[in-house]
Design a protein that fits this description.
The complex is a heterodimer of chains A (about 750) and B (about 300).
Chain A: H1 2-15, H2 20-37, H3 47-56, H4 61-72, H5 100-104, H6 106-112, H7 116-119, H8 154-172, H9 193-202, H10 213-217, H11 237-242, H12 246-249, H13 282-296, H14 298-307, H15 332-337, E1 344-352, H16 358-369, H17 374-386, H18 395-398, H19 402-407, E2 414-419, E3 423-429, H20 437-446, E4 449-455, H21 460-466, H22 468-478, E5 483-489, H23 498-514, E6 522-526, H24 552-557, H25 564-568, E7 572-574, E8 577-581, E9 585-594, E10 596-598, E11 602-606, E12 610-619, E13 622-624, E14 626-628, E15 632-638, E16 650-652, E17 660-661, E18 663-670, E19 677-683, E20 686-698, E21 705-708, E22 718-725, E23 730-731, E24 737-741, E25 747-753
Parallel strand pairs in A: 1-3, 1-4, 4-5, 5-6
Antiparallel strand pairs in A: 2-3, 7-9, 7-16, 8-9, 9-15, 10-14, 11-12, 11-16, 12-13, 12-15, 17-23, 18-22, 18-25, 19-20, 19-24, 20-21, 20-22, 24-25
Chain B: E1 43-47, E2 55-62, E3 71-83, E4 95-102, H1 117-131, E5 142-152, H2 166-188, E6 197-205, E7 214-217, E8 226-236, E9 241-249, H3 256-299
Parallel strand pairs in B: 4-5
Antiparallel strand pairs in B: 1-2, 2-3, 3-5, 6-7, 6-8, 8-9
Helix pairs in contact in B: 1-2, 2-3
The chains are: A alpha+beta (about 750), B alpha+beta (about 300).
Chain lengths: ~750, ~300
Amino acid sequence: MASYDYDYDEHEADLEPMSAEDRAQMDKGLMAVRQELKQSPDLQVTTAQIEDSLWNYYFDVGKSVASLQKTYGVKPKQTPKKQTAPKAKSPMMPAGLEPRPEHCQGRKLMARSESFAHFFSDMPWLNVPEHRKTTFIPPTMPIPGGLPGGAPSKLQALASRRKRKAEEKDVAGPSRPQTMSGEKVEKPTATSVVQKVQRLSIDDRVSTPTPQTSVTEKKPKLEEPDIPNVLVEEPSALACTISVHSKDEHPRPSQSRYPIPYMDIEIPSHMPPLFDFSTPSPDDIALAAQAKVGKKNASPNRKNAAVAPTANMQNLKIKDSTPLPTSKHIDVTREWSRRSNPKNDACFVVVGHVDHGKSTMMGRLMLELGVVDERTMRKHKKEAQIIGRSSFAYAWIMDSGSTERERGVTIDISVFPFETEKTSFTILDAPGHAHFTPAMVTGATYADFGILVVDASTGALESGLKGQTKQHALLLRSMGVNRVIVAINKMDAAGWDAVRYEEIRNQIKGMMKGMKFVLKNISFVPVSGLMGDNLVTKPTNPKAAWYNGPTLIEELETAKYPTEETIRKPLRMDVVDIVKDDFAGLSVHGRVRQGYMQVGDALLLQPSGEKAYVRALAIGNESKDFVVAGQYVRLFLSHIDPSHILTGDTVCDPLDPVPVVRNFQMKALAFEPVLPDVLEVLRGRIQAPAHARPLSLIHPKTGEVQHVHPQLLKQGQFGRLEIRLKDHKVALEKGNRVVLRDGTGRPVAAGLLD
Amino acid sequence: MADRRRINGPVGVTSPPVYANHTPGKAQKDTVQQRPDNTLRQIFLKTGITPSASGSAYLEVTGPSTNGPSGLKLNCTVHGPRSLAKSTPFTPYTTLTTHVKYAPFATRQRRGYLRDSSEKDLGVHLETALRGVIIADRWPKSGVDIIVTVLEGDQPREVFKGTPDEGIDAMNVLSGCITVASAAIADAGIDCVDMVAGGVAALVASEEDKGEPRFVLDPAPSEHDKILAGCCVAYLPSRDEITNLWYKGQTSGNDTLLYTQLVEKAVQASRGANKVLVDTLKEGVTEAGKQSKGSMEVDR
């Protein structure tokens, strides 16, 4: 701010011609000074020098004379040009240019001087003497309110002009107080205080500092003129925080802790004393205890990591903090053979054309066996009545999904365990609709035997024979399900007609013979799924008196079951379903195809290759210590990330795992012509697109190669196919049966790996 | 849409602390005066606190109680001189606007967000004190806004509302406001005739002196049993002028001598504050010089 004013004055003095008023003042002052100087004739000064001096001292004659005498009277004989520079009062002035008048009237003086050589005569080019060196002082910051670039705004210019005018008026005024010595007493003029301070430090034209003491001298009426002693306070923490610059100068108060306010309040005696937080508060204690408990399990692992942090990269893996499940080390095969109630485990799949009553028949069977209680049944009946399809009530025992119930068809296989006196069964109720063939294949993969449900009513049988009754029978055969019970359903609708039964029997027999089923493994049972006739009990209908064969459940119990041989094989279990339960944890559902496992065993999941441990085992809702082949189990896993498990994975023995393949060969029977094409490989939950190509044509009986690299496998032909999976690898081994289907969903071929 | 132009408060509910009241029987006098009567409390003053303002200053006065950081804390910002709105009629002078606002947490009794009558009153006092100092015709058609925020009140928060010394407390705040505003105006570079500073003196009576009244500079209400009268002045030391005078209290009879003595004591207190003020500004000037010099050295 002050620098601005300084600059401004310079501009005025240098650029603008003197005003008439000033000129008059100047002339008057010049006369007076000349008069004064006449008394000392040895002093030689030019008019310009006097004028300059007067201008400096605001036309103060006394001061000007004193200054001129002081400046030029010391060495009177010398011309001003040759004067040695007086000591620089301000470091602002470069020393070489110090003689101010010379500088100001440089042009005139230059004209008089003979040559510039003389001017530079004592100027060394290097080794500048110390007294000539200067210190540069940067210009002070511009006014905060000014225009950028330091140019005065109009407002500022106006203000400054007014200020000037006021000053001039003040100086010119006759009432200007003068002291005896002729020195002007600096009355506090209308200048900003900061300006004044600034001028004190940098304005070299003011030769004598403003006598500040005179201010107090002027106050005689004050009885106690002494200014009270005020100590400048150390800034508080707040002050330190808000003033950035003061950080360095004023160190923060050493007081790092502040007393808590209002702790000295007197507490009435009936109230508990205030807690002063000198000891850990109850909250602190509780939090510390909680933190300790939380860390207890994690600490051993951390210790392990600390022992060899870089030795083995595997040690750095984030591990489950839960301990490994402990194994009871049961000799499963021995235990299994010595078990107290030697029940067989069997898994069967219920297949057939859509709406032939598979789910209803199984639901009724459950009810008859007492697996489902009356109350649940009543509930289903009521709900089925509400939507106007009371016949669906039994099916709803099997079909639990809302979509399934709404549409009245089974969509995914439903797994339902039940027990008879001799056997533990697991029903795999497959969907009949053509769209859901993969689910049916899943069911067929895990089944020991199948129930083919056929509608006895006229028309339905025929449509089934063209449709899924035939297809499912074929798929059962492809997946190696040789034992089939054909349940001729809806006999009540057919009026328990023995002729009709016999007719159907012959038709189905013929069909299955064509599929190369062994006929002695096929049995026929007439049933009524809706009425429950001949499921568990003999039919009550008098019209059914002609039938004296076994009931469905009796027929089921005659089926063959896995032997000890399959139990001794290495463990294989296909993941049919994954259940992530917040409470029970991660579990997978599936059938143990071969081998056995017990709690605590290490497992390998293929094709991901992830390791896991058996945390718990269950069949239905019953917890088990071990499971063996043939059982449909719930396997609770630990030490594995749920994202590594997919349906269709194979859980296997880590010592003898299932190979993961991408390309393989298989012997297949063609249902449809097989051309080199993209087909879908189905097995269990596996659904993988692949390129299939016929390699050779094989004689079905003798097994000898008839044709190498055939163009295609015709319908019913037997041949070797090369399969190259497109996307991902699958876990398959020799002997696994797979189905190939085309883009429309039709099964094209089926066979087994070799 | 959320208001993004302001710094919004927390979303959740906050509750201000509610302090237990002192037991009613407790003596009003909390602290003992430790300094001589003719000295002021320690002052910390700093200019240029708020960079966005044209000028700003921060003032701190130590509290009467020595065991805490409590004490008067004032922040002042000066905006301007800036042009007035187009709608305002022409004025050849600077329009001065003063705001004094207690922060809601400044006193024991929570303050509202809008200025109450006492705060407006302080604002009027401050304007009177400053109007005589600023050279108003230097900046025509322009306005200067002076905003003083009381961050912490002078009265210790232990003293709850309703004490008869509230006037003295307001005087102390006003005196601080005047001093801090003066520093901020100087920081803004607004032309003034002099540096104005506030000062307070009081006539107190205490039991130790057997009821004999005595003068105290810069009184702290909690240090004295009874305050008979108080006076707050805004004083220009170089001109020997008073721009604002606030006298309050009862002096016996028509004792004019007592009155003038009290005013003189207040003036004396103001001189003390002025000394701090001038020192601070000088320090600020040299500091600015140092800084710009430092930057020049870097350039080289």
